[in-house]
Amino acid sequence: MDLGHPIAKGNTATIYLLENKIIKIFNDYLPKSESVYEANKQKFAYSCGLFVPEILDVTEIDGKQAIIMEYIKGSTMGEILFENRQKAAYYMKISIDIQQRIHMITADDPLEPMAGKLRLQIELAPKLDEKYKSALIHKLDSMTYEKRLCHGDFHLFNLVMSDHKVAIIDWVDSSAGDIRADIYRTYLLYSHFSMELADMYLRLYCEKSDLSKEEIFKWAPIIAGARLSENVSSKESEQLMDIINHYCPL
């Protein structure tokens, strides 16, 4: 099947636009259940009434796992912000409103539990020795929270503005967990790009909720440890270890 040239390529899949539909082709090394697993997460978010691309089919194309979904035409809020940085607070407030709508949704099946996901990531982090892994997992096990829908990779580049509405894309990291962990994950992602943007995000989220920075930062070492399981640069790896050592010293 001729899909043409890809419009994007990530660590796990290649994205194509064909006949006004998005086709996501998964890499061969992934488990055979990966496409169904990811599609079910997005279907759940869609069923909750969020503006999310509709899953049209889960199939195989040329022997590879594939998801076919609705194409949302538009630009990401991240792209728009960088064309007009003076409106950073405006776009950040819009994004926080959306994230808070996500966080209002009580979640369980079919989403994986956040705790199990984070535990596995910590266990797989090559930079962490057994003492660090044990300390972080102990801290994770001590956390109590109500399970809410968490996107897991929420930032301005996963929000697409289309006809004055904003679509939320890329649900592969979503889970049922603590919204404070999801907030810190977003803060952490912004911080590696721009501390000014990260601090603005955290300040605005706290102002628009009853959460404090201290509550959110309880998750700092856990989320930093889990992040080390991802393909991060050596510089970011050092920064993550600094966070762990600061908030969870051995």
Strand adjacency order, main sheet: 1-2-3-5-4
- Write down how many β-strands occur, each being a DSSP E stretch of 2 or more residues: 10
Q: What value does the Rg take, in angstroms? A: 18 Å
Enumerate how many helices there are, as a single number.
10
Helix content: 40-55%
- Characterize the biggest β-sheet: 5 strands, antiparallel
SS-based class:
alpha+beta
Describe the structure.
45% of the residues lie in helices and 18% in strands. The chain is α+β, with helices and mostly antiparallel strands. β4 (55-61) and β5 form a beta hairpin. The mean pLDDT is 95.
Map the helices and strands.
Elements: E1 8-9, E2 13-18, E3 21-26, H1 34-47, E4 55-61, E5 64-70, E6 75-76, H2 77-83, H3 88-103, H4 114-124, H5 130-142, E7 148-150, E8 159-162, E9 165-168, E10 175-177, H6 179-191, H7 195-207, H8 213-216, H9 220-227, H10 234-247
Helix pairs in contact: 3-7, 4-5, 4-9, 6-7, 9-10
Output the keywords.
250 residues, alpha+beta, three-stranded antiparallel β-sheet
Question: What can be said about this structure in brief?
Answer:
Helices cover 45% and strands 18% of the residues. The protein has ten helices and ten strands.
